[in-house]
Amino acid sequence: MAQSLPIRLADPIELPQGFTRLSGVIELGDRVIVADRGESTLWKVDFATGTGKRVLRQGEGPGEYRDPGRLFQSSRDTAVLFDAVLKRFTVLGPDLRYVRSRVFGRAASARVRGLDHEGHLFYEETTADFQRPPPAGFLRGARGGESPIALVPVLRVNLETLAPDTICFVRLPPRRTDQRSMVAETPGAFGLGVPFGEQDDWTLDPAGLVAVVRATPYRVEWYRGAERVDISPVITDLRVAVTEADKEAWWDRMRQDSIILLDCRREPCVATAVHRPVRPTEWPRTKNPFEPGLLVLSATGGLWISRAGSAADTRTVYDVVTRGVGVQQVVLPPGRRVEHVGERFAYVSYEDEDGLRHLVRYRLLDP
């Protein structure tokens, strides 16, 4: 596919403070809000002064939170905070005041992708992973079947009636046969899927337009409701080989994870932590063409996709796909992760040697 001009970033400004576990960064009007799940805190940060101020309170009352699992942009001046413990979505206005909240018990942090202007929840249902039948009205994904390709539905859920609509189906990575367990659902987590295995990913904009990145072929599809309204050309046919260095780097990063065994044969589920995960014995020949769990949809409609690289790469490459524009690229130093892209700025994080993530703001230059 022909490449248009690269997207250029300039004038980096780094916040002095580090974050234990970034779970969300958004622009709310002229404010920047940061969720740190590791410290269970929400911050309002100022890049001009390099300062941050904690906002909201921990608790279970209206406008409070226990665990800031995700932070979504509902509109330019409205945010939605997902509490992973309370399974609650709290809408915050432009002054960060409480507007309303909804509880959805089946929500899991990495499965929820956001809410639209009308308050519909967009959710990836993987009921077979939880070893229990879905509630009435919910579709069961094919994850638990014998098919080598596991497909699960992307659902749009009315939070008033809990009535779901199926938008499309997405592919999960092949299931490992050497690890029968499940972990906390975070991007890149040690779980049931074969490392680097082919899989789709998706996100949405505040108007409810769903963007799906397909692994084979590597391209983007857009859905409005159940209708596919647009499709990009194939971004690239190239695949990165999985090397021994990649395997070792993956294992070094994941070997300290705690595996959570779930037994849901009876209610409630019983969770048991196991601190010695099994080193994978199954590896694909090539990597998924992009890194799952890292999609960012910009305020101007560009879908930022982290392209898969090798352990020896000296840069991070993002493919940026925009309807009607095509594919552009952004090149960043190695280990960088794009957290949020607004109309004028991009927010990028990196991890230091102590495991803290640092946030850097870049100005987007005109083409």
Keywords:
globular, four-stranded antiparallel β-sheet, 367 residues, Neuraminidase, mainly beta
Report a brief summary of the structure.
This protein has one domain: Neuraminidase (6 Propeller), CATH 2.120.10. It has one helix and 28 strands. It has one helix spanning 244-254, and strands at 9-14, 22-28, 31-36, 41-46, 51-54, 57-58, 64-65, 68-75, 78-83, 88-92, 98-103, 112-115, 120-124, 150-158, 164-172, 201-204, 209-214, 219-224, 227-231, 259-263, 270-274, 296-297, 303-306, 316-322, 326-332, 337-341, 345-351, 357-364.
Describe this structure as you would to a colleague.
The protein is mostly beta strands and 367 residues long. It has a single domain (9-364), classed as Neuraminidase. It is 3% helix and 43% strand. The chain contains one helix and 28 strands. The protein has one helix at 244-254; strands at 9-14, 22-28, 31-36, 41-46, 51-54, 57-58, 64-65, 68-75, 78-83, 88-92, 98-103, 112-115, 120-124, 150-158, 164-172, 201-204, 209-214, 219-224, 227-231, 259-263, 270-274, 296-297, 303-306, 316-322, 326-332, 337-341, 345-351, 357-364. The strands form eight sheets. It has a four-stranded antiparallel β-sheet with strand order 1-28-27-26, with no helix packed on it. A four-stranded antiparallel β-sheet has the order 2-3-4-5, with no helix packed on it. A four-stranded antiparallel β-sheet has the order 8-9-10-11, with no helix packed on it. A hairpin with a 4-residue loop joins strand 9 and strand 10. The longest helix is centred in the C-terminal third of the chain and has 11 residues, at 244-254. The chain starts with 8 loop residues before the first strand and ends with a strand. 34% of the residues are buried.
